[in-house]
Amino acid sequence: MVLAAVGQFRATIQVLANAESCLNIIHRASKAGAKTVFLPEASDFIGLNAEEGLKTARNETPQFVKMIRDAAALSKIEVSVGIHSPFHLNNDATVTPTKTTNTCLFISSDGEYHKLHLFDVFVEGSPIYHESKGVQKGSSFLKPFDTSIGRLGMNICYDVRFPEMALKLRREGAEILQYPSAFTLRTGAAHWELLLRARAVDTQCYVMAAAQGGKNMRRNEMTDQQVGKHDEEGRRASYGHAMIVDPWGSIVAQCSDMSTEPSFCLADVDLQSLRQVRQSMPLWDQRREDVFPS
Ligand SMILES: O=C(O)CNC(=O)[C@H](CS)NC(=O)CCC(=O)C(=O)O
């Protein structure tokens, strides 16, 4: 058995303050005995718009990442953290970036994943999100890799709605799936728990879902044009409810709905019980590859 932690906090455009929130979670989760801590999508900042986001990612995110790396080393804990990184065409640093990637870093083993599915949606009663305006979607699948709590498959947020990705990660050996997120209030209330538990049950994996929670922007942090674009009060807010789900689909830890202060919850990862779930219901031996080829 090993302890894992998932974090919840409210990132704003203030990168250093966001870093302090992450450090607070990292140090406390480590003290509590966690071997790995998962932080939300876009922990470095929640931007105002695409141009500002790119500028902040170029100028400020490197310092944010350094602070997280140092804290992980100091606290001797593995950290998964969502950030933005400038997108360079063909990986050529001399090409001026026009977008960022929505990236998750796994610090210590240097896993790096770029979000494959972007949140371009129009949901009645919810702010409009057009993630691809500022973000370049990833182009490759990242194989699961070993961590101190088990073999980890990386996803980000909206990826949770694409079960083929979770199935592929399981097929490639994942024992743990992560979904660092900043879910909207409306879709979160309707789908967050349902999707996370479904992915856990589909794949018989642990699910680690760190989440942003609370109002990401205050009115006085926004320009006049930005006010009104997010919700009726001109603010963007995230659903919270960071949680850990076990391979049977039970929620084994969940952060408080009330807390917008940096917080975390902990659960044991028990790979023996994972194997038991997989043996007692051997889905992977029963898949009808002849009818539904993978
Ligand atoms: O990169 C950033 O700055 C923050 N990124 C996000 O908040 C992303 C893209 S806008 N949010 C989601 O994917 C929410 C998905 C969701 O809510 C759903 O699937 O229902």
Description:
One of its GO terms (molecular function) is hydrolase activity, acting on carbon-nitrogen (but not peptide) bonds, in linear amides. This is CN hydrolase domain-containing protein. It is built from seven helices and 16 strands. The chain is of the alpha/beta class. It has one domain: Carbon-nitrogen hydrolase (Nitrilase/N-carbamoyl-D-aminoacid amidohydrolase, 4-Layer Sandwich). The strands form three sheets. Strands 1, 2, 3, 4, 5, 12, 13 and 16 form an eight-stranded mixed β-sheet that branches. Helix 1 packs parallel to helix 3 (61-75). The two termini are 32 Å apart. Residues 41-42, 46-47, 102, 119, 129, 131, 157-158, 161, 182-184, 187, 191 line the site of N-(4-carboxy-4-oxobutanoyl)-L-cysteinylglycine.
